[in-house]
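Quick one, C-alpha cells below. Sequence please?
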C-alpha cells in the first residue's frame, strides 16, 4: 500500500476549505484532482519548451514533438497496446466514442444494421450512435441488467444477430459502479465476428487495463478522470480497423499531401489527429499515468475497494437509505437516495458541510428510467480519499436526513 498522508501532499487542493469546512472531495467520477508533478510538467513545458509539434525543424519544436510522442508511448504501455500507432489522442472519451461511431459507421454500416449498447451507458456512448442511426437508418439494441445492476449476458447473446456490426459497452458504470464482464462480452461478440468498443472512462483510474488481454477492438478514456489535465483523452483501436476507417476530421497534421484534385491522408495515428494537438496536455497526461503506475493500480484498487465497501456498510445504517448498484463486482462509486429527500437537496446541504458529491442523472437518463428514479446522489472515490472522509460523508448524510 502507499502512504495516504504523503499522497495527499501531492494534491494541494485537498487542503482547501469551503464554507469554513475542510473540503471532502467525493466527485472523482466527474473529474479527479491533479498531482503537482502533472502541473509542474505542464508549467515547465510552457515556460521552457513551448513550440508547435511535428512541423518545425527548430530545436524547441523537436523537443515538444519528442515529449508529445514519448507521451503516446507512455499511454501505449499503460494500457498495453501492441503498437504506438494504435494510440490516438483525442479531447476525451466523448470524442473517442464519436470518432468511432462516425468513422466505423461510415465505412462498415448501412440501413438495417445494428449497434448493441447497454442500459447503463453514459450519454456519450448512446448519442453518437443515435446520430449515426438518424443519418443511416441503423438501429440500437440494448443489453438489459438485473436489479442489482449486473448486465444480463444471456440476453446480450440473444441480441447478437447477422445485422450486428459493433458492440459498445462501458467497462464500469459511472452511476452503479458495476464492473461489467467486458472480457466475456468481447469473447462472445468475436465468436460472431463482431468488434467491441469499450468505454474505459470509469475503469482506467481504478484498475489495470490491458487491451490485449481484453482483446477489445477499441478502447476510450479521458485524461481528466485519471489525474491528468482536461481536454485530452485517448482512443486505442486495433490497426486493422483504424486502417480501414476514414478520417473523422480534416485539417493540418492528418494529411500527407493536398491538392485541389486529391488529398492523401497521413498514416496512423495522425490520420485521426487533425489540427494542432494539445501537446502540453498529452505531456501532463503521461505524467499522471506515471504517477498512478508508481503508486500501483493494484494498491489503488485495494484502497478504493476498501473505501467503497466501508461507505456502503456505513451508509446502510441510515434509515431510509437506498443504494443503487449492489453488484458483487463494484468499483469506487456509491449512488444513493434517502427516503423521499430530493437528490438536489441532499447534494446542496452536503455541500454546505464541505462535502462535494454529484447529484442528478449523471448523463445516464435511460438508466434512471430503468431504475424508476429521476436522479441519485453519487459519492465517488479516488486514490487520495480517506476513511475519515467517508465518515464525514456518512455523518453529513445522517445529519441532512434528520433535518427532513
Ligand atoms: N463514459 C463514462 C462512463 C463517463 O463516466 C464519462 C464522464 N462522466 C464519459 C463517458 C464522458 O467522458 P468525458 O466527458 O471526459 O468525455
Amino acid at each position: 500500500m502507499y502512504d495516504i498522508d504523503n499522497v495527499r501532499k501531492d494534491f494541494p487542493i485537498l487542503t482547501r476549505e469551503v464554507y469554513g469546512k475542510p473540503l471532502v472531495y467525493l466527485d472523482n467520477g466527474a473529474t479527479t484532482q491533479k498531482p503537482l508533478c502533472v502541473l509542474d510538467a505542464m508549467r515547465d513545458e510552457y515556460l521552457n519548451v513551448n513550440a508547435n509539434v511535428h512541423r518545425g525543424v527548430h530545436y524547441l519544436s523537436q523537443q515538444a514533438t519528442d515529449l508529445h510522442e514519448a507521451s503516446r508511448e507512455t499511454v501505449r504501455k499503460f494500457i498495453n497496446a501492441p503498437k504506438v500507432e494504435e494510440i490516438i489522442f483525442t479531447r476525451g472519451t466523448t470524442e473517442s466514442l464519436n470518432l468511432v461511431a462516425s468513422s466505423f459507421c461510415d465505412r462498415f454500416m448501412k440501413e438495417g444494421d445494428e449497434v448493441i449498447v447497454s442500459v447503463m451507458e453514459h450519454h456519450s456512448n448512446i448519442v453518437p450512435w443515435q446520430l449515426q442511426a438518424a443519418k443511416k437508418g441503423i438501429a440500437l439494441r440494448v443489453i438489459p441488467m438485473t436489479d442489482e445492476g449486473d448486465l444480463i449476458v444471456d440476453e446480450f447473446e440473444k441480441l447478437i444477430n447477422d445485422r450486428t456490426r459493433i458492440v459498445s459497452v462501458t467497462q464500469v458504470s459511472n452511476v452503479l459502479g458495476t464492473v461489467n464482464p467486458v472480457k466475456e462480452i468481447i469473447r462472445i461478440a468475436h465468436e460472431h465476428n463482431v468488434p467491441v468498443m469499450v468505454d474505459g472512462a470509469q475503469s482506467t483510474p481504478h484498475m489495470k487495463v490491458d487491451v490485449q488481454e481484453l482483446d477489445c477492438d477499441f478502447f476510450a478514456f479521458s485524461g481528466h478522470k485519471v489525474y491528468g489535465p482536461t481536454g485530452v483523452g485517448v482512443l486505442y483501436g486495433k490497426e486493422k480497423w483504424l486502417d480501414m476507417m476514414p478520417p473523422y476530421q480534416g485539417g493540418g497534421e492528418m494529411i500527407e499531401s493536398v491538392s485541389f484534385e486529391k488529398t492523401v491522408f497521413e498514416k496512423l495515428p495522425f490520420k485521426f489527429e487533425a489540427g494542432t494537438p494539445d501537446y502540453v496536455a498529452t505531456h501532463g497526461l503521461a505524467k499522471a499515468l506515471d504517477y498512478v503506475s508508481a503508486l500501483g493500480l493494484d494498491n489503488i484498487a485495494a484502497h478504493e475497494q476498501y473505501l467503497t465497501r466501508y461507505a456502503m456498510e456505513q451508509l446502510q445504517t441510515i434509515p431510509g437509505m437506498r443504494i443503487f448498484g449492489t453488484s458483487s463486482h463494484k468499483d469506487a462509486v456509491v449512488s444513493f437516495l434517502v427516503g423521499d429527500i430530493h437528490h438536489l437537496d441532499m447534494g446542496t446541504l452536503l455541500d454546505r458541510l464541505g462535502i462535494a458529491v454529484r447529484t442528478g442523472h449523471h448523463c445516464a437518463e435511460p438508466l434512471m428510467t430503468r431504475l424508476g428514479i429521476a436522479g441519485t446522489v453519487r459519492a465517488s472515490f479516488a486514490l487520495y480519499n480517506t476513511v475519515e472522509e467517508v465518515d464525514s460523508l456518512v455523518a453529513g448524510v445522517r445529519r441532512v436526513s434528520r433535518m427532513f
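The first strand starts at residue 17 and ends at 18. The mean pLDDT is 97.
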